[in-house]
């Protein structure tokens, strides 16, 4: 009674508007004072303010252009700035030296605490794991890839080289059957690159039209595309229980179940035929490691589990297939759009390799223009435009600013590769920018495989595969835009990878190397 009397007195009083204004000024002033006095707020990086709860997510524009939006914001806020993404903080770095410095630091080598990391991958594998477990799994994978021949590809005697050459032979034979006809290369290249990495991981290749293999490739490709749509749900996890808003989340979950089923059967095939003392591929190496730990009664406390093995296999396959396939799609598209570059590559291949045999890793040192062209493809396409996001594992001071624990750190590799202060006319496709006195030189700001502690684990293999496929195809075929079809633009579709828009090319037979070996797949083993 007494309270309501006072309330109505206040509301009816003439001083009420002044009271409201005074109260508002008080609260806004207090908020600004707290921000000024709170060292964390004062040390924040520059960046747009964003809205409560959703931060800057509604202002990031078209989902196909996130790398361009991030680049535009860098022009306003500088080479390192912050953004609020839902309840989390993101830091975007677009300067190569700052990226190198940040990614050398242990504190910036974690992965973001995203819904998918927790619920789908469970922090397993290599790509999304962190801490000691990540170090152990990464070291093991690198060791095994080395044993399986990833670094010995230069020798023609090498078994891995022979397997890659055999797969390329299947591919070029398939292209020959369709010589001169318009063809979409994406699915065939998915088959070639998928088979190479699948052979390394589980000793198996598939026919390009095998329905199980095609299903796995398309599920994976869809996954790479869906990642860009998952930004909202990753940073605002409550969306996953809201019907209509959770379609992407449910789709990614279903795809993960299908992918695991595909690899489970491959792993079972290897486990059923494994022999003591012999390692045919990565899965064999992992199974031997589990057995060794079981024998030593250390299995219970170790990180080498069936779930870990499954995620490592999926990580190596997905990272190894999609990136190399997309790089090659760009490579052949650029050749069709720049016939003068294509002729120069072919002239070099004809002179150094000739037409009697296929190009080998040993030839590479004599093929500077071909190598420079591949570097230019990797720069111009920036296939992984924002790298893999890192995260800060603790509050860290970086160049006078506080990067709070848990902040997601994006490296804008696309911006680095298109920076006019670093590259002369970056929008021009020009392999010569990588040549100095006829020799290939990669400037320090060329970083398609990222840099630092989490630098791509497959960079050696990727460079070798891309070179072998690119050189073998250009030796044998002329690449062109089919008559009557329009030239696709080179903007790319943004996702985890930046893919060329759908297009077709004509691959017309130039000549066939005489000594191409028939495609064979033997299964050599090395001691465990
Ligand atoms: C053109 C081809 C490729 C490109 C452009 C590429 C690029 C990248 C980039 C930018 C990263 C992120 C590094 C970071 O977190 O800072 C990465 C990570 C990774 N890549 Fe690649 N990659 C390629 C091929 C491959 C291949 C062939 C494999 C497998 C054999 C592979 C396996 C991985 C793995 C496992 C990681 C995670 C490393 C970690 O988190 O420690 N990549 N790659």
TrEMBL record:
The chain crosses the membrane at residues 6-28. The keyword Iron applies. Its cofactor is heme. One of its GO terms (biological process) is organic acid metabolic process. PROSITE patterns: CYTOCHROME_P450 (PS00086). Heme binds at residue 456. Keywords: Heme, Iron, Membrane, Metal-binding, Monooxygenase, Oxidoreductase, Transmembrane, Transmembrane helix. InterPro entries: Cyt_P450, Cyt_P450_CS, Cyt_P450_E_grp-I, Cyt_P450_sf, Cytochrome_P450_fam2. Pfam families: p450. One of its GO terms (molecular function) is steroid hydroxylase activity. The keyword Ion transport does not apply. GO terms for cellular component: cytoplasm. Belongs to the cytochrome P450 family. PANTHER family: CYTOCHROME P450 306A1, CYTOCHROME P450 508A4-RELATED. This is Cytochrome P450 18a1. It comes from Hypsibius exemplaris (Freshwater tardigrade). The lineage of its organism: Eukaryota, Metazoa, Ecdysozoa, Tardigrada, Eutardigrada.
């Amino acid at each position: 009674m007494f309270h309501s009397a006072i309330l109505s007195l206040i509301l009816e009083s003439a001083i009420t508007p002044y009271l409201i204004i005074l109260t508002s000024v008080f609260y806004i002033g207090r908020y600004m004072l707290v921000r000024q006095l709170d060292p964390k707020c004062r040390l924040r990086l520059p960046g747009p303010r964003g809205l409560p709860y959703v931060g800057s997510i509604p202002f990031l524009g078209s989902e196909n252009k996130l790398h361009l939006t991030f680049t535009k914001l860098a022009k306003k806020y500088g080479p390192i700035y912050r953004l609020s993404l839902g309840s989390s903080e993101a830091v975007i770095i677009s300067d190569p030296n700052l990226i190198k410095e940040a990614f050398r630091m242990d504190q910036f080598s974690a992965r973001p605490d995203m819904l998918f990391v927790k619920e789908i991958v469970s922090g397993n594998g290599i790509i999304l794991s962190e801490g000691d477990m990540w170090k152990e799994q990464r070291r093991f994978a690198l060791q095994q890839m080395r044993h399986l021949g990833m670094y010995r590809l230069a020798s023609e005697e090498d078994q891995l080289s022979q397997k890659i050459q055999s797969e390329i032979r299947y591919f070029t034979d398939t292209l020959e059957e369709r010589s001169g006809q318009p063809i979409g290369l994406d699915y065939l290249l998915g088959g070639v690159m998928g088979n190479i990495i699948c052979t390394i991981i589980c000793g198996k290749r598939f026919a390009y039209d095998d329905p199980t293999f095609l299903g796995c490739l398309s599920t994976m490709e869809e996954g790479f595309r869906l990642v860009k749509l998952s930004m909202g749900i990753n940073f605002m996890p409550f969306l996953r229980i809201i019907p209509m808003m959770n379609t992407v989340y449910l789709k990614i979950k279903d795809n993960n179940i299908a992918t695991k089923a595909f690899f489970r059967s491959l792993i079972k095939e290897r486990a059923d035929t494994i022999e003591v003392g012999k390692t045919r591929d990565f899965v064999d190496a992992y199974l031997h490691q589990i057995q060794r730990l079981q024998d030593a009664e250390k299995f219970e406390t170790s990180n080498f589990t069936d779930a870990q093995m499954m995620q490592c296999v999926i990580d190596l396959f997905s990272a190894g297939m999609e990136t190399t396939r997309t790089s090659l799609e760009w490579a052949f598209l650029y050749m069709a759009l720049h016939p003068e570059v294509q002729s120069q590559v072919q002239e070099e291949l004809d002179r150094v390799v000739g037409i009697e045999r296929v190009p080998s890793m040993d030839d590479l040192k004599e093929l500077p223009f071909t190598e420079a062209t591949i570097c230019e493809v990797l720069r111009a396409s920036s296939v992984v435009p924002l790298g893999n996001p890192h995260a800060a594992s603790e509050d860290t001071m970086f160049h006078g600013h506080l990067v709070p624990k848990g902040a997601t750190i994006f490296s804008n590799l696309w911006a680095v590769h298109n920076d006019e202060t670093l590259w002369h006319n970056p929008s021009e496709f020009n392999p010569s920018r990588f040549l100095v006195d006829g020799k290939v030189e990669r400037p320090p700001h060329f970083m398609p495989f990222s840099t630092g502690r989490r630098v791509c684990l497959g960079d050696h293999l990727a460079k070798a595969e891309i070179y072998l496929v690119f050189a073998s195809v250009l030796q044998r075929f002329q690449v062109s835009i089919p008559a009557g079809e329009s030239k696709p633009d080179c903007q790319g579709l943004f996702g985890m990878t930046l893919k060329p828009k759908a297009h077709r090319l004509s691959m017309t037979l130039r000549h066939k190397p005489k000594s191409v070996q028939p495609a064979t797949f033997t299964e050599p083993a090395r001691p465990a």
